[in-house]
Amino acid sequence: MLDFLIAQTLNGLVYSMLLFLLALGLSLTFGMLRVINLAHGAFYLMGAYFGLTAWNLTHSFWAAIIVATAGAAIVGMLLERSWLQRFYVRNELDQVILTFGFALVFADIMKMLWGKDIHSIPVPPLLSGAVQIAGTYFPAYRLILVGVGVALFVATWLAIERTRTGALIRASVADRVMVSGLGFNIRLLFTYVFGFGTAIAGLAGVLGAPITGIYPGLDFEVLITTLIVVVVGGLGNISGAFWAALLIGLAETYGKALYPAAASFIIFGLMAAVLLIRAWGRDEEDVE
Amino acid sequence: MTVADVIVQRRSKPFVALRLWSVLGLMIAAFAAAPFLGMPQFVQALVIEILVFSLLALSLNVLLGYTGLVSFGHAAFFGIAGYAVGIIAIHISTDILVTFPLAVLVAALCAVPIGWLSIRLSGFYFLMITFAFAQMVFVAAFRWKPVTGGSDGLIVPGATLFGAPILGSRESFYFFVLAVFTVCAALLYAVVTSRFGRTLVGIRESTPRMRALGYNVRRYKLAAFVVGATFGGVAGVLNSLFNLFIAPESAHWTQSALVLVMVLIGGAGYFVGPIIGATIVLLLQHWLSSYTEYWGLVLGILFIVLITGAREGIAGLVMQGWSHLRGKGP
Amino acid sequence: MTMKTRGLTRRTLLASGTAAAGLSLSPTGVFSPAIAQAKPLRVGVMAPLSGVYASLGMNKTNGIKMFFNEQNMSVEGTKIELVIEDTEAKPQEGLRKARKLVEQDNVDVLLGVISSAIGYGLKEYVNRAKKVWVTTGAAADGIFKKANNNPYAYRSSLSVYQANEPMGTWMAEKGFKRVFVTGPDYAMGREAIVAFEKTFRAKGAERVGEVYAPLGTNDFAPYLTEIKRVNPDVVYASYAGSDAVRFVQQFAAFGLQNSIKLAGYGYLAEEDTFEAQGAAAVGVYSALNWAYGIDTPANKAFVANYRKTYNAIPTVDSVAGYVGAQVVWNAFKKLGGKVPDQEALSKAVLETKIDTPRGPISFDPDTRNVIQNIYIREAVKDGNEIHNKVLATFEAVRDPGV
């Protein structure tokens, strides 16, 4: 029984970290820029594909990681510079439609470039192998992902809360005019922040590739899950995203282990429940 | 700033209404005459589908364009009614006087609790919760094999009337759908131009103000939700009876997204916008996919272009062009 | 790893001397060579070319095109035209395309479809429209039963039951006694396991665990942990596509590959999953109506030709397309290169008895489902690649149809 608990909790933790990696980029973008980026899933897949190509050429996992992250960042920044910037003043629905349009465009471009087959990136030999915990073998790679997730959380939180740049970003969101009046280049700052968000999505894509595989359609699968995590955690709230990822990851894992039939409902039901609990008693316009 | 704030509506003056209905009336008359002038079977099928999805888009617009509620789960009611008509036909009776109204009623009844819960949120959160409910409907359809046929879908028995099979031929179904569409469109128009409809617009423009004026905003929103779901259900029934088949994908979020797209492309601020949008999207999807497998790319570009340059959809563009031609406006 | 190139064209109208563009929209725009001959025969091909099954659809149409090209796009002196349409694996779109092909393009026969949901709807449609349809997919058991047999619909691919039933017998005879079953939680996943268990347990073996993964499961960790705890002799899995890739990979990652045998419905370990699965797939047993390694001249020629033509490895879907095309072509041939009416075509298809890369096939008149060989395969390393080699053959397997 204890073995079961330990094993499934570990499974849940690992899954949560993958969810968190996905959610971080989206939450960051919304928290900092107030932009809902529905192309987020596309950046995840993009990172995975960039990583795949890098791996095919160099057989180095580290190269794959660098290329994936940098590639997603560059595309993200280009997107922000060229198009998204005009949409900061527009309402959410417009942003949703714009980014959804780009998601569709990216999806087909990726299909054109990389084809329709299912691909994967193998775990690097250094990180492969299993660790024995509680009588069951656990892939080492997954445990490492847990570490990466936690590290990223801490690093991002620190960066935003404790550094000058972070303060700058928070200030710009609160009062853009004032900050640029003080001489800072707001437009560039926002570009970097957006690029950082997409970079994390790309990183998550390449890191997750050995577990989820790489194929067309993964972008929208990931997007749905990410949206759920972000909504449960509260849009723009990074710690919220972390705890929401934990909650959902553990709930889904235990759900699958104990009540497989109800598992699908759990995620959607959970999200609906959290949303409603938050909103209860308040007037609609307060919950934005 | 609420999500639908910027969707501008052209107030429907009686003069405009007359013009609108004379155009629509002409089109409907043309459609009615077409089969007699040799409209091929296949084109009839296309028109049937356009009418069905136009109705679905019109029903969504009651929520979206008029009340400002951006729902990402409208396909749920399309699917619920679509399945209901099949299930009722299999287990109770295939008589259309039984299946049709009952199926629509089922959709409307489901809309009550779903709507009651959902309208407590707004903006992006409303979007997500309607999405969540719709996905639950999808999952139920997908997994409840004994009732819904599960992932393989459900074969819908043909409709009968007092024991005799009806609507068996393409042409008869064509006229049936045309008639139902005309009635529903007229009803919807009456709803949105009534005091009720104007209240909805008021709610969209400024909820606090409406509340201050003493309106029970929640009740109106719920009513709009149910009205939208009901007519969406009618579309679902028509769809199932046409294909004589329904599958879980009819309730999937991608179907909801498609309807949303139809409304936005056509123009949410105009009554006929959804009809234009449904026509364009259906035809695009059908023709494009015969030419290229990358029609997603085209659709994506269409969104980007429209949302950047033509916020009020095709209907908006047409109206702008029209007023331009007449020498007024920008 | 082999990088495969894909051309952008996914549909081609082939008439001799023409590399036509998409002219099929208006039937009158179709190019026919100006030679006094019988009217060209038109085959309406339906496959998912976008969406989740896109790679399967592409393989299928490749197989179809390859066969017709081998016959120089003609039969008994009559030209053959292909009209290819994308079903997007969605029933609504599938029915729409079928209507277009039948009512607007006036095709002589319908070929294709992979998704079972489309299959159910289409079977009713072709009965109403009275058009012969040979499906190369749509493997759900319920689509082709004695009870819903109609004279127009034929299945040349397989039924899920037919493919999995022999595996139970074979595995029991091999000495496996305790099985843990798992699969995706929808019709195909469950039907495969039901069929396997029927014969497996009939031989005295037992099931020690079962779990069905809900749609969209990315992570099988909770199930793998459970499997490890139960410790069966063998795990029988009915996953396909990206699920198959993930399950097999994760199975190995969790260290189960060396202690528990992995077996399953053929799609678990097929030519389209091997590249992504890598070494994790080696040693997996599976059952399907074809194997890359079938050692007959017909199959060897097929594989070689496919690899040369498309610079890609053929999969079971490629073969399915190829065989479907064979069935249609042979029926045309029997009728002398013309189709006087659909009843005659249907009769010609029913009487099919041909040899294919999968072995000999014919149709069961009670269900119009194909009667064919089922192969038990093992994934083995073959130089730099992994392929299925045949361990055992079950001949003339039919679906009971009940």
Question: Any overview of this molecule?
Answer:
The complex is a heterotrimer of chains A (288), B (330) and C (402). Chain A has eleven helices and two strands. By secondary structure, chain A is mainly alpha-helical. Chain A has a single domain (2-118, 137-286), classed as ABC transporter involved in vitamin B12 uptake, BtuC, CATH 1.10.3470. In chain A, a hairpin with a 2-residue loop joins β1 and β2 (136-139). The longest helix of chain A has 32 residues, at 2-33. The termini of chain A are far apart. Mean pLDDT of chain A is 84; it is low at 284-288. With 330 residues, chain B is mainly α. Chain B contains 14 helices and four strands. In chain B, β2 (160-161) and β3 (164-165) form a beta hairpin. The radius of gyration of chain B is 20 Å and the shape is globular. Chain B starts with 13 loop residues before the first helix and ends in a 5-residue tail after the last helix. The relative contact order of chain B is 0.17. Chain C is of the alpha/beta class and 402 residues long. Chain C folds into two domains: 12-158 and 296-368, Rossmann fold; 161-288 and 375-397, 3-Layer(aba) Sandwich (Rossmann fold), CATH 3.40.50.2300. In chain C, a hairpin with a 2-residue loop joins β14 and β15. Chain C is 36% helix and 24% strand. The interface between A and C is large, with 46 and 43 residues.
Sum up the structure in keywords:
heterotrimer; A: 288 residues; mainly alpha; ABC transporter involved in vitamin B12 uptake, BtuC; two-stranded antiparallel ribbon; 3% strand; disordered C terminus; C: 402 residues; alpha/beta; Rossmann fold; six-stranded mixed sheet; 11 helices; globular; disordered N terminus
